[in-house]
Amino acid sequence: MSTNSDKVVITLIFLVSLIISTIGDEVSSANFPIIVSTWPFLKAVSAAWRSVDSGLSAMDAIVEGCSACELLRCDGTVGPGGSPDENGETTIDAMIMNGVTMEVGAVAAMRYVSDGIKAARLVMQHTEHTLLVGEQASIFAISMGLPGPTNLSSEESIEKWINWKKNKCQPNFRKNVLPVNDCGPYHLKSRTNLGEKTCLNTERVGVDESGSYHNHFNLHNHDTISMAAIDKTGHIAVGTSTNGATFKIPGRVGDGPIAGSAAYADSEVGACGATGDGDIMMRFLPCYQVVESMRLGMEPKLAAEDAIARITRKYPDFVGAVFAVDKNGTHAGACHGWTFQYSVRSPDMADVAVYTVNPK
């Protein structure tokens, strides 16, 4: 038979266990909400943070953060007014992913509409599709209420394009072709009698002997904001927005709107964002790889490094980076070919912090 003192001890043990359990939950949840983004896009991260810290969802935070970057034209590589293609036109790629439902909405090579991330969310909300492209994506976005048609070029982008034309359209993304005149049109090398002005350079057009075009990617020529958000409920979302690689071939779509490449999320595991040479990265789906590696128990740092290593084994000249964040808010980054920075805001920070990752 238990005595009153036994009952007191049992009660105390129960209360202590309950307190310890509660403290443990508080320590874990103190990591939320959290925003992680490629590059020192401080105002974009702050916009996302204000949204999620006020109690809105991770999805809402992604839209606010990426929209801020589009409006600010972060580094000239997000939103309108930058990165002209060979014809001098700026187009938009964007994607948003819900890590709870695994829904994805995306637009690619979208013309005349500047709100890439909002257009991507409209694809998710109002269609059964995942990706809309080109002018038809623009028509859809405008029909759903977004402003347009809008000229996405700027004085800066036009001047950049004019100077590029004066430099004989160098560098560019063409290979194994010969241009008639300095800037094309381009023909297969096997064709003959192309005229007196045919360029006889049979190397990859626009590339010097020191390396590939990918060496043109640097801290001022990357092309993507990729952002992850974990809200107060632990739900995770990711999003991207970009105006693509400078002087790309018209119609080119990069990794930005491809789920698993520039971003991926699963609320049961975590999230990833990527930036860099999207034409290479989309062949490896590095962010899908990061999340799946974390699902198997790999820590974020090792998962990020492993995803980059898988690319560099095949492409040693690759330039790019990823960040990884698990469902508990632990984050890390990895890169190759450049020094990478990513930004974080969480409850234990007074402001956005920038983390620097050096290549191995």
Low-confidence stretches: 8-30, 194-215
Q: What is the rounded distance between the termini? A: 67 Å
Strand order of the largest sheet: 4-3-2-8-7-1-13-14
Evaluate the radius of gyration.
Answer: 24 Å
Percentage of residues in DSSP E strands = 15-25%
Number of strands: 14
Individual helix count? 9
Structural class per helix/strand content?
Answer: alpha+beta
Helix content: 25-40%
Please state the overall shape, judged from the principal axes of the Cα atoms.
Answer: globular
List the secondary-structure elements in sequence, H or E.
HEHHEEHEHHEEEEEEHHHEEEE
Question: What composes the largest sheet?
Answer: 8 strands, mixed
Average pLDDT works out at: 87
Outline the secondary-structure elements.
Blueprint: H1 4-29, E1 34-38, H2 42-53, H3 58-72, E2 92-98, E3 104-110, H4 116-126, E4 131-133, H5 134-143, H6 155-166, E5 177-179, E6 186-188, E7 225-230, E8 236-242, E9 263-266, E10 270-276, H7 278-281, H8 286-295, H9 300-312, E11 320-326, E12 331-336, E13 340-345, E14 353-357
Parallel strand pairs: 3-4
Antiparallel strand pairs: 1-7, 1-13, 2-3, 2-8, 5-6, 7-8, 9-10, 10-11, 11-12, 13-14
